[in-house]
Amino acid sequence: MARVSISKEQWRIARIQWEGDPLVSYADIAEQLTTSRQAVKQHADRNGWQKKIDAAAVAEKAHIAADAKVSYVPVGTPEQAPSVYVETAENVDLSRAPMRPALPTPVPAGTDSQTASVMVEQGAVDMRAQVLAQHRTEWKAVRSKLYKLLKAGDSMPDGDTARAVKAVAESVKVLQEGERKAYGLEAPGDPRNPGAGRPAIVINRTKGKTIGR
Q: Is the torsion defined by CA of 28, 29, 32, 38 positive or negative?
């Protein structure tokens, strides 16, 4: 790759972007600066670049932000379920394309370092919060589909009901697992406790019993 002239201001902004988001790599910075990954790494090593926040801390803040975006109402019986979830389900595309991280967070030239650092960290949190909110909304939609099928009664055999719901749930699960890895959200629910908060669907056709959570 031909040698590229990079200003001190560009390097200053690049450092803030790299240090403020645990997922931003040397390759991401190299692409932004139109230089090589090796050139970025050499510059970072010479100048003591260090990550300022880890993935778990960003994920925890993202979960808190996602809580404000998506409300959840517990469901106790099949009779309660449709009114809770039906509106959500109608507008959710469960066959969407995967979301990809847009890195690094843009910072205008001339932004002072303190403001830039806040912008980068907030951008990292907001991006992940949006993913989490989407995932939670999608699981609401999956549950809504389940409740609608169960409400249909005996017109659909139990085996067909279970297979229909399982097919939708599995496709959503695969999609979301890939996105959690891409965004550094390996432990939904509580990043300090891997596996916490993973959605579960429980089918129980006994009248008056809980059928999901």
A: negative
20 found inside a domain: yes
Structure tokens at 197: 């908060």
pLDDT in tens, 105-138: 999 999 999 999 999 999 999 999 999 988 988 8
Residue 205 included in any domain: no
Range of 24's domain?
Answer: 8-47
Exposure of 180 in the CB half-sphere (CA atoms within 13 A): 23
**Buried b or exposed e, range 76-95, using 16+ CB within 10 angstroms:** eebeebbebbeebbeebeee
Structure tokens at 66: 């996602």
Nearest of 79, 51, 57, 176 to residue 125 by alpha carbon: 57
* Structure tokens, 4: 């590229």
Res 4 pLDDT > 60: yes
Smallest CA-to-CA distance from 62 within 105, 115, 121, 16 is with: 121
Worst-scoring range by mean pLDDT, 30-34, 96-100, 109-113, 120-124?
96-100
pTM for the model: 0.68
What is the per-residue pLDDT for 99? 84
Confidence grade of residue 7 (pLDDT, cut at 50, 70, 90): very high
| Domain tally, the chain | 2
Cα gap 206→55, rounded to integer Å: 43
Tokens matching residue 158 = 């139990």
The encoded tokens of residue 69 equal 């975006």
